[in-house]
Amino acid sequence: MIWGLFLATQSFANDLPLRPEPPMSVPGECSETISLAPGVSVDCTAVALPLSVAADLLATEKWADHLYSKSSLLLAESDYELQLAEWRIEFLETELVVAQQPIPVLQRVETHLAIGLLGGVIVTVGAGWALSEVSDE
Question: Where are the domains of the chain?
Answer without folding.
Answer: 54-101, 103-137
